[in-house]
Every structure is written in C-alpha cells, then in structure tokens.
Amino acid sequence: MTNKQLNTLCQKWQKILRLQDWDVTASFCSAKDMTTEGRVAETRINFNNKTASVMILASKERPMLPGKNKIWGTLSTLIHELLHLHIEPFVVKCPEQDIDRTQVEQGIECITSGFMTTIGEDS
Ligand SMILES: [Zn+2]
Asked: 36 C-alpha to center of ligand 1: Å?
C-alpha cells in the first residue's frame, strides 16, 4: 500500500467515524521516526486546529501480532489511531482523575476489534 492509498483509506474511515471535520494526514514511516521505541503507530494531534498526523510503521518493519501468524494490519492500526482523536480530549481534560493509559489503549483496541470483526480481512 502506498501513502496515497493509505490517505484514501484514512479519508474513508474519517467519514465512517464522523471525523470529516479533521485534517488528517497518514503516512508510513520507519521505527526511527517514532518518538517511543516499539510503537506500531503514533498520532500527533493538534486539538486547536483539528489536525492530526498518523504515522504507521511500514509493513516490513511491523512486528507479529501476539499469538497470531501475521503482522499488525494497516487498517486496524489506522482505525485505532483515528479513534484516539475521539478519546484523547477526555484524557487531556481529566488529568486529575489519573486515567490509566493501558485502559485507554485497551478500550480503543476493543472498539477497533469490533470494527474488524465486521469488516473481516486486514492487510
Ligand atoms: Zn493507541
């Protein structure tokens, strides 16, 4: 998949997830571009102007899914990152409640998994 195809997929899923009012750019990247080692993807979000940059590790660098004989999928990773745009404002606005990052990630992953069950194949 090319960056152009990834952005077309991103626009499609922005509509499905009601994020059309966001200006999101998606691109494949190398592990050295991530701010935290070991990440499969990373999203830089600017809530003030509703822009985001989704970076997904190139498939050749992506690790295997735990317990499965395949790498992390592009579509499920993209959906996961886009869902952060909905969830992160709650995390940012409620710092005194000490929201657990693991719970945030698990919640997003459960919703993503629900979409993938409906969609089927990931690539
Ligand atoms: Zn996440």
From this structure: 12
CA end-to-end span of the chain, whole Å?
9
Q: What is the mean pLDDT of the chain?
A: 89
Which of the 8 DSSP states describes residue 71?
A: B
Is residue 97 scored above 90 in pLDDT?
no
Give me 12's structure tokens: 């499609």
- Tell me, yes or no, if the pTM score tops 0.90: no
> Is residue 80 pLDDT above 80, yes or no?
yes
The full length of the chain comes to: 123
How far is the centre of ligand 1, averaged over its atoms, from the C-alpha of 26 (Å)? 15
Structure token digits, residue 112: 């993503």
Q: Provide the pLDDT for residue 94.
A: 62
Identify the CATH class of 3-119. Answer: alpha beta
Q: For residue 4, report the distance from its CA to the centre of ligand 1, in Å.
A: 23
Q: What are phi and psi of 103, to 5 degrees?
A: -65, -40
The domain limits of the chain are 3-119
Determine the distance separating the centroid of ligand 1 and the alpha carbon of 37, expressed in angstroms: 14
